[in-house]
Every structure is written in structure tokens, then in C-alpha cells.
Specification:
binds flavin mononucleotide, alpha+beta, NADH Oxidase, four-stranded antiparallel beta sheet, two-stranded antiparallel sheet, single chain
């Protein structure tokens, strides 16, 4: 499919059919992930592909308990909505996220993106050099993975809420302590449809030459 179409219609898919995802499809997505940029080309990631039904149930249980704590905390921290349309969009996102929390194990494949807990801060004679967070070197791989899945007609969602109990995930899957769980991505054929998701207008978030110079004609 056309790359721009794929990017534009990549959105969070949280309801999956029972149709299997093949190893070849998973590998295609992992090869795309592996091509992602990383700081100094360190390629820090480890990918953990979970297919086993008991392990998916185990992950689903941990995920739901994490989400049960996250949802009320998130709702309490959500600022008032500007209008009814915004409130409705938020209600739908929460309902969809809640659905995933209760059905994660139904995704035929769950992929974990792991990041070693290393400091990448360099120092020179003047002190530490802040060249950005090491986590920036793993999320492009996650996005590449999800885009490749999109091209294959497979839905995904980038999730992180399970980090609340990531020690339990380490114990379940034998992940060494030195790895952080950067993302958990369920994948499967969507029950709904891909489509262009609503976003803020470009004009509200884009500046030209100097911060504050905006153009209203860009949509
Ligand atoms: C860093 C990050 C963490 C996220 N964590 C979760 C999560 O734990 N659970 C979940 O259901 N969605 C999670 N999401 C998905 C977002 O809710 C989703 O990308 C956003 O609502 C836009 O969805 P849309 O593209 O369908 O409009 C996360 C997304 C990002 C980028």
C-alpha cells in the first residue's frame, strides 16, 4: 500500500478477530522495526514475541490489573473538555482502552519491546551532555513495527500501562531485571476498520521560522 496512506490510517486497534497472525507476518514487522533509527545506531532493543495462550492470559491478567489502577487516576487528572465532541471522543477512547484491558489475551500475538536500563549520558570536561532520552531510541522501532503491520492489514496498539506491574511481567516471561518494558503491542486482524483518526489542526501546533508565527491556511 501507499506509504502515506498507511501512515494516515494507522490508528489504535484494540478489538481483534480470532484469525491467526503467521510467523512470517510477525517477522516482516520485526524486520521493519529493526530498520528504525537509534542514537549512535546502538539498536538497543530486544523483541519478545508472545504466542503461547497461557502466557497471553498471564499478560492479560497483569495488564487488566494495571489498567484498573490507571483508568480512575487518568480520569481524575483529565482537564475539562472544550465541547461535547471532545468529551465524546475521549469517552470512546476510554471505552476502547477498557475493552483491550479486558480482552488483551485474545490478540493472537503480543510483542514486547524491551530496552536495557543503561545510561547513555556522555560527559566531557564541562559536565554531562544532554543529547536526549535513551527511550527515544526504541519508539521509532515500535512505530515501524506498527506501520509494517498496517501494511499487512494487521491492527496494533502501542501500550505502556502494564509497566505499573512490569516486575510481574519480568517474572512471567523470564526477562532479566536490566531490561525495561518500553512497549507492549498486541497484534491481530481488526474487528473494526482502519481510518484517519481525528487530530488537532496543524495550524494549532506548527510555527514558521519563529515560535508563535502561525498560518491559519494549513488545516
Ligand atoms: C506512549 C504511549 C502509551 C500508550 N499506552 C496505551 C495503553 O497503555 N493502553 C492503550 O489502550 N492505549 C495506549 N496508547 C494508545 C493511545 O491511546 C492512542 O495512540 C491514542 O489514543 C490515539 O489513538 P488513535 O490513533 O486511534 O486516534 C498509548 C500510546 C502511546 C504513544
Amino acid at each position: 500500500m501507499d506509504l502515506i496512506d498507511g501512515i494516515m490510517t494507522l490508528r489504535a486497534i484494540r478489538r481483534f478477530t480470532a484469525e491467526p497472525v503467521t510467523d512470517e507476518e510477525v517477522l516482516t514487522c520485526l524486520r521493519a522495526a529493526r530498520q528504525a533509527p537509534s542514537g549512535g545506531n546502538i539498536q538497543p532493543w530486544q523483541f519478545l514475541v508472545v504466542r503461547d495462550a497461557d502466557l497471553r492470559r498471564g499478560l492479560g491478567d497483569i495488564y487488566r490489573r494495571a489498567y484498573d489502577r490507571y483508568e480512575p487516576a487518568m480520569l481524575a487528572a483529565t482537564p475539562p473538555f472544550r465541547d461535547d465532541a471532545e468529551a465524546e471522543r475521549h469517552r470512546r477512547t476510554v471505552a476502547s482502552a477498557r475493552y483491550l484491558a479486558e480482552h488483551l489475551h485474545e490478540a493472537p500475538v503480543i510483542v514486547l519491546f524491551l530496552m536495557p536500563n543503561i545510561s547513555m549520558t556522555l560527559h566531557d570536561a564541562e559536565g554531562p551532555l544532554d543529547v536526549g532520552t535513551p527511550w527515544a531510541s526504541v519508539y521509532p522501532a515500535v512505530q515501524n513495527f506498527m506501520l509494517a503491520a498496517r501494511a499487512l492489514g494487521i491492527g496494533t496498539t502501542l501500550t505502556t500501562v502494564i509497566r505499573v506491574y512490569q516486575d510481574e511481567v519480568r517474572a512471567l516471561l523470564g526477562i532479566p531485571d536490566r531490561y525495561e518494558l518500553a512497549a507492549l503491542v498486541p497484534m491481530g486482524r481488526p474487528r473494526g476498520k482502519f481510518g484517519v483518526a481525528p487530530r488537532k489542526p496543524l495550524a494549532a501546533v506548527t510555527h514558521w521560522d519563529r515560535f508563535g508565527n502561525r498560518r491559519d491556511d494549513i488545516g
